[in-house]
C-alpha cells in the first residue's frame, strides 16, 4: 500500500516524467546538503515534495539495485521510496535496503554531520549504523547539452494541486 495519499498529493509539488524527476531529486538533495548521487533511480514516473512537512516520494517503474563502486556496496531501491527530508538528514526512509554480507538490511535514516566531517551515516531501524565518505555518493554534474542552432531548450510539465502546467524555456547561448 502506498504511503502517498490524495490528501498528501493535494499539499505537494508533484512532477511526472523521468527527466524532471531526476532534476528535482538532485535539487532536493543539494537543498538539504546531501550528496547528489544518493538516489540513483531509473525510469522515475512521479516525484513529490510537501515543503511544510518535508515529506518526499519517488515512484519508479520497477525496483533498482545500484552498486556504489567507491565503497563496494549494493543498495536496492523499491518502486516507491518515501522519506522526510530535513537539512543534513533524511529520516523515516522507506523502500531502501543495503546488502551486508548475505542479508538485505532496511535503512531508515541518512545524515551528514553539521558542521561537515566529510562522512555520511546510514542507520537501520534497529539503531545499527555505518559511516562512509560523502564523496562516495557525489556524482559529477553533466554539462548541459546544446540543442541545434546553439539554443538550449528545456520543456517540463509540473502538476501542482491537480492542475497541469506546461512550460517551455528557450535560452540563447
Strand-helix topology:
Blueprint: H1 6-11, E1 13-16, H2 18-31, E2 44-50, E3 55-60, E4 64-68, E5 73-86, E6 89-100, E7 103-106, E8 109-112, E9 119-123, E10 129-133, E11 151-160, E12 163-172
Antiparallel strand pairs: 1-2, 1-11, 2-3, 3-5, 4-5, 5-6, 6-7, 6-8, 8-9, 9-10, 11-12
Organism: Cannabis sativa
InterPro entries: At5g01610-like, DUF538
Pfam families: DUF538 (PF04398)
- Quick one: overall form? globular
Average pLDDT: 84
Q: How many beta-strand segments?
A: 12
State the secondary-structure class. Answer: mainly beta
Q: Helicity, in percent?
A: 10-25%
Number of domains: 1
Radius of gyration (Å): 17 Å
At CATH level 3, the topology is at5g01610, DUF538 DOMAIN
Task: Tell me the strand percentage band.
Answer: over 45%
Q: Uncertain regions: pLDDT < 50 for 5+ in a row?
A: 146-173
What is the second-level CATH architecture? Roll
Number of helices: 2
The CATH class name reads Mainly Beta
The largest sheet, given as strand count, sense and whether it forms a barrel, is: 12 strands, antiparallel
In whole angstroms, the N-to-C terminal distance is 47 Å
Oligomer: single chain
InterPro entries: At5g01610-like, DUF538
Region (Disordered): 139-173
Biased composition (Basic and acidic residues): 141-158
Pfam family, one: DUF538
